[in-house]
Amino acid sequence: MSHVVVFGNQKGGVGKSTLSVLYAYWLANVHGQSVCVIDLDTQANSSKTLRRFNSEVSAVELFGAELDSGIAGGSEQRIALVPGGKRLSDIELARPETVIPAFRKNVASLAQGFDAVVIDTPPALGLRMSSALIAATAVVCPIELEEYSIDGVTDMLKTIFGVRQRYNPGLQLAGLVLNRFNPHSVRQKAAMRQLLDSYREFVIPARISTRSAIPEALAHGLPVWDLPKSAAREASAELKALFGLLQQRMDAAGVGASSTGVTA
C-alpha cells in the first residue's frame, strides 16, 4: 500500500498547507511519483495553489459513500487534487461511526492508485483531523518556534499517540518540523532549546527559514524550485533536505516501504 502522509497540528498558521503542497510537488516533479492531495481545510489554501490539478471528487465526498471510480493523476506533474471547501465544516456535526470508516475506506482505495496520498488538515482536533490520522500511515507535525506553538506540541503528540494506541497501530510520527525559523531571533533559539529538551527524538534535524520566495511561488501555483530567483534556490535546498529526511524516517519505519523509490 502507498504511504498516506498527514500534515497536522492543532494550531493554525504553522505551515501545514505550505508543506503539504511542496511535499507533493517534491514527490511528483523531483521524483516522478504520482500523488493524490486531499485538502480537509475549509479555507482550502492547498486547493488554491493546486487548483489546476482538480479532480472530479471533492474532499467532503470522501466522508460519504464509497467512491464509484478512482482518481488518476493525469497531468504532466502526476498530481491529483481532492479539493477542500466550506462544506467540510458540516462533517464536524456528523456521526463519527459513519464518517470515519467511510473516509478511511475511501483513502485506502485512493492509495491503491497513487504512489502517495498527502492530507492537509484543519487547525483543530475534530472529526476531520481524527479521520485523517486514523487513515494515515505517517504524520508530519509542522511547528513555529513560538511559545504558544511549543505549548501545543504536547497536545498534538498526545492526540497522535492516542490514535495510534486505540485506532491505528500502524501510524508513525515522521517528525516535528521547525518552520519559519529565524536564526537571529533570541526568542526562537530559546524555544528551540526547550523543544529539544523535551522532544529531541521527534525533531527533524532540518529547519525551514522564513523566506519570501516560498509564498511567492505558491501564489503562482509553482514549487519554489521553479521560481527563477536566488532566494528560491536557498529555500529549495532547505525544503529538499527536509523532505529527504522525512522520507528516510518513513522508509526506516516501513511507511510506504521502499516501493516509492524516493531518496533525498
Description:
The chain has 264 residues and is of the alpha/beta class. It has a single domain (3-254), classed as P-loop containing nucleotide triphosphate hydrolases (Rossmann fold, 3-Layer(aba) Sandwich), CATH 3.40.50. The protein is 41% helix and 16% strand. It has 8 helices and 7 strands, in the order E-H-E-H-E-H-E-H-E-H-E-H-E-H-H. The protein has a 7-stranded parallel β-sheet, with helices on both faces. Strand 2 (35-39), helix 2 and strand 3 (79-82) form a beta-alpha-beta unit. Helix 3 packs across helix 4 (127-135). It is globular, with a radius of gyration of 17 Å.
Largest sheet: 7 strands, parallel
Tell me the strand percentage band. Answer: 15-25%
Task: Please give the CATH architecture.
Answer: 3-Layer(aba) Sandwich
Spans of at least 5 consecutive residues whose pLDDT stays below 50 are 257-264
**CATH hierarchy class name:** Alpha Beta
Strand order of the largest sheet: 3-2-4-1-5-6-7
Number of helices: 8
Q: Level of helix content?
A: 40-55%
Quick structural gist:
The protein is an alpha/beta fold. The protein contains eight helices and seven strands, in the order E-H-E-H-E-H-E-H-E-H-E-H-E-H-H.
